[in-house]
Design goal:
0% strand; 476 residues; 2 domains
Length: 476
């Protein structure tokens, strides 16, 4: 069920009205939200509900057993069960085909006649997100940083809560489950701020991501041979803002829907292309994943303790696995490695400045220069992310250096897509300053007028969109 669909436009108000009626009855309310979440997920493919149930049941029992256990060795075994079950399901459905195909290729390169049958399994939508979510629960209990959920219903709703179920943000149990205990009722302020997040999220998805993606980025990457230098640059910039608008838009809609229902979800994007270095960029981009990897992978590896080469090793391992999280392909692994090297470079520069007693340069032109370089490094790294073979990658590079001149704006590059890209760049540059007063102005208008305005916007966005496009990160 797409957020930008008529089905969801009917589904969510129905859920809100029933939830509103049940807010005085906590157990009934939770049960209803759990059923609604399962129906939301079943709209994609009901067969994969079994995976969510399996993960929920395993981690519920493991969490309770671990909290009651006093022997550290047994607690480790219980944690191992959770890790093996969750990562095993993720590996089977997302990575098994990739690993088998890679094994075939390796054996053939060594001269063996490899004929391992490669299984092509359908990827359950959202499995990368809810797997990390449930793992944070059992790991935190193992670390004695979290008590088990009071009831199975609380834990099941934490796992399956529909706004962020299929594409995040990745929510920690310590953040979400206490809100279930409070049974906090949604207020007019919650509805107002939620509608604001939904409106901004829909704008990013439909006006920015869909138009730029369908009319500029996708045509370029599908047929780079038809584009010259300027067209290639527009395609590369376009893909950056397509991915940002699509994923940040989903996150904001999810946050907005949860807020209307009375729940707070963590911010997932904070204007990442205004970052001054790659460390800052990944503190602004997919924040819930970056913080998860920091807390459950980077720090356990040793974090920033030890010598500089140990720190660089930890950064590289974390980012290689972050790349693999994004997709089952070597291009994602290489992309993660590139980001790891850029983050290590930023760490090295910061360490050198600290050793020399030099602070961050703050002149406007120096800040602008840092942002320009950081954005372009990230944009160029996405060439590896977006291309799926060496020939495809070299074809894109060839387009960048092809100097036949600028193609007409109406063919193959629609003017509307260029306009949407320019608008996206401009809005991103002013967003940090404009966002607070815009949010205050929105809040002065009543939720009833906001809701009517949002419905009108939804119709306008549907007209502007080139087609109803699934969210990009559903494939991860």
């Amino acid at each position: 069920m797409l957020f930008n669909s008529i089905t969801f436009l009917l589904f969510f108000p129905t859920v809100f009205l029933v939830d509103l009626a049940l807010q005085r009855k906590a157990s009934w309310r939770k049960m209803f939200l759990l059923v609604a979440s399962y129906l939301f997920y079943a709209n994609w493919d009901w067969r994969f509900l079994g995976l969510i149930w399996a993960s929920t049941c395993i981690d519920w029992f493991v969490g309770n057993a671990m909290a009651a256990e006093t022997q550290q060795k047994r607690r480790k075994w219980l944690l191992t069960i959770s890790l093996a079950a969750n990562l095993g399901m993720l590996a089977t459905f997302k990575y098994l085909g990739f690993f088998l195909e890679s094994t075939n290729n390796l054996l053939e390169s060594l001269g063996f006649d490899a004929h391992i049958e490669v299984l092509r399994l359908m990827l359950p939508v959202g499995i990368s997100f809810y797997t990390f979510q449930t793992l944070s629960y059992t790991i935190d209990i193992y670390r004695k940083q979290l008590e088990p959920a009071r009831t199975f219903l609380d834990f099941a709703l934490f796992v399956a809560f529909f706004p962020q179920l299929v594409a995040g943000p990745i929510v920690r149990a310590a953040t979400f489950i206490p809100q279930l205990y409070e049974n906090r009722r949604s207020t007019r302020r919650d509805v107002s701020l939620g509608l604001y997040e939904i409106a901004i999220g829909l704008f990013k998805k439909v006006v920015i991501a869909d138009i730029i993606g369908n009319q500029l980025a996708t045509p370029f990457y599908n047929s780079p041979e038809q584009f010259g230098t300027w067209g290639a640059l527009l395609g590369i910039y376009g893909f950056c803002f397509q991915v940002y608008g699509d994923f940040a838009g989903y996150s904001q809609i999810a946050i907005g829907c949860a807020r209307i229902l009375g729940f707070n979800l963590p911010q997932n994007f904070r204007w990442p292309f205004m970052a001054r270095n790659n460390i800052d960029l990944w503190a602004r981009w997919h924040i819930s994943l970056s913080s998860w990897l920091r807390d459950y992978l980077y720090i356990p590896l040793g974090g920033s303790r030890g010598g500089k080469w140990m720190i660089y090793r930890n950064i590289l391992i974390t980012n290689l696995l972050a790349g693999l999280w994004h997709g089952a392909g070597w291009n994602f692994v290489f992309w993660g490695g590139i980001n790891g090297m850029m983050i290590s470079g930023a760490h090295a520069r910061n360490s050198k400045r600290k050793k020399l007693g030099i602070g961050q340069p703050n002149a406007w032109w120096q800040v602008a220069q840092q942002r320009f370089i950081t954005f372009h490094c990230f944009a160029l790294s996405l060439l590896v992310f977006r291309t799926y073979s060496w020939d495809h990658f070299t074809g894109v590079l060839a387009a960048i250096v092809r100097t036949e001149g600028l193609e007409p704006m109406d063919s193959p590059i629609p003017g509307r897509a260029v306009g949407a890209l320019v608008l996206a760049i401009f809005l991103h540059m002013i967003a940090e300053r404009v966002h607070p007063p815009l949010r205050r102005a929105w809040h002065r208008v009543g939720p009833e007028i906001q809701g009517a305005f949002l419905i009108l916007l939804f119709g306008l966005f549907s007209h502007l969109a080139t087609e109803r496009t699934p969210f990009f990160y559903f494939q991860f």
